[in-house]
Amino acid sequence: MAENAFDNTDLKAYKASGVLADKVAIVTGASSGIGQAVAIAYAKEGAKIVIGYLEDEPGAQKTISLIESYGGQAKALAGDLGKSENCDKLVQFTLAEFGQIDILVNNAGYQYPQTSPLDITDEQLLKTFEIKAFAMFYLTRAALPHLKKGARIINTASINAYRGHSDLIDYSGANGAMVAMTRALARRLVREEIAVNGIAPGPIWTPLITKTFGELNPNVADDFGEDVPAGRPGQPYELVKAYVFLADSQNSYMTGQFLHMNGGDYMST
């Protein structure tokens, strides 16, 4: 049986050490799931948070409320980050609210399963690449003039960039583009002491799973993640220490890398 209870209030037990004190972080896709967990953990580590989200205002406000309950500060701005002008707005909003940007987490995601590549329309292909790959580039480009030495860029890709997924062909490709751009950006920015790394999660239980796979598999909550060696999906809070590690300015000799958080799945293939 999958661990299908999603609740980032589990982060109340997170023990912080203050490694992100006085930092400002933009975290996209932070109205739920992995982004919400990362935003909360960063806030507990001392960072001020700006949440980028598409349309889930209740979720964004919940993230802010959780952060404030731990004594942190957070703001949120809605917008489709697949459009470059909204990435520019998010950067300017962050600068107006907090005066600096130290950490950028490109975590916004979208997937829509199709059992045949013939069913992937032009519109779906473009939307998937816009939200995953284009948004990552647009937001990085907008933030880059304001990033100083020691800044960190962290990109959330997927195990599917490495192994593929037969029902997520466009999503696998968009995540593959994210991996390639992460490595290219890392090579370009390393001499400026800006590290660019990423996380490639395996099956993580988030609201996106039921929203997308629920149409194909009404029992997705029962069997999601059972096929990995761990025998279960991960929870967002299980990833946050990796995101904190990659955001820490003391982690100064690691760039262009992806951490594989997947219950042993990728290592076994």
UniProtKB/TrEMBL annotation:
What the entry lists under InterPro entries is as follows: NAD(P)-bd_dom_sf, SDR_fam
Q: What Gene Ontology molecular-function terms does this entry list?
A: oxidoreductase activity, acting on CH-OH group of donors
Q: Which domain of life is it from?
A: Bacteria
Q: Which UniProt keywords apply?
A: Oxidoreductase
Biological process according to GO: bile acid metabolic process
Q: Does the keyword Oxidoreductase apply?
A: yes
One Pfam match: adh_short_C2
Query: In its keyword annotation, does this UniProt entry include Oxidoreductase?
Result: yes
What the record says about family reads: Belongs to the short-chain dehydrogenases/reductases (SDR) family.
Q: What is this protein called?
A: NAD(P)-dependent oxidoreductase
